From TrEMBL:
Residues 1-24 are annotated as: Disordered. InterPro entries: UPF0250_YbeD-like (IPR007454), YbeD-like_sf (IPR027471). This is Uncharacterized protein. It comes from the Eukaryota. It comes from Picocystis salinarum. Pfam families: DUF493 (PF04359).
Length: 169
């Protein structure tokens, strides 16, 4: 029994062998190219993000040769539509997430942006929570019915009009 406990302590205390998949992924993110790895052109952050996504996918055993579009970078709505046609069928249910600064007024702004396109969203389809330090708030709306890809683009555009938005997922 003492040998077993000693072996368990050695594994737990080891910094070279991650204990969980989540820990392995966190370590890969910190080492991944694009965020602290190769030097990148600061004008092309979406390139770094795409390469990091591919590296993480490959490390997790998934196909790293997928197509990733980073909206807000150089990708146009037409680029997004081209990819969307390959992976989505409308009508469909889809959720929207925005992270930004503010409180309940920010939540209402995000909900209003979605409702302005798709109509009323039931209160049970809206969740929000503050970040661990309280600097940001994450707002999830949906899933709600989306009839076509133009609605998705319109919702993202409406959410982006709020200057407190930091990220849209």
């Amino acid at each position: 029994m003492a040998q077993l406990l000693g072996a368990m302590r050695t594994v737990r205390g080891s910094r070279t062998s991650p204990k969980t998949r989540g820990e392995r992924m966190r370590r890969m993110v910190t080492r991944a190219e694009g965020f602290g790895g190769k030097k990148r052109d600061p004008e092309v952050p979406e390139e770094a993000l795409r390469e990091t996504l591919s590296s993480l996918s490959q490390a997790a055993g998934r196909n790293a040769e997928t197509t990733n579009i980073v909206l807000g970078g150089k990708a146009t709505p037409d680029d997004w539509r081209e990819l969307d046609e390959k992976v989505n069928t409308y009508p469909m249910k889809r959720g929207f997430k925005a992270i930004g600064t503010g409180g309940e007024d920010f939540v209402q702004s995000v909900v209003g942006a979605v409702e302005g396109i798709v109509g009323d969203v039931p209160p049970e389809k809206v969740t929000h929570r503050p970040s661990s330090k309280g600097n940001y708030i994450s707002v999830n709306v949906g899933p709600c019915w989306i009839d076509n890809p133009d609605q998705v683009i319109a919702i993202y555009a409406a959410i982006k009009t709020d200057k407190r938005v930091k990220w849209i997922i």
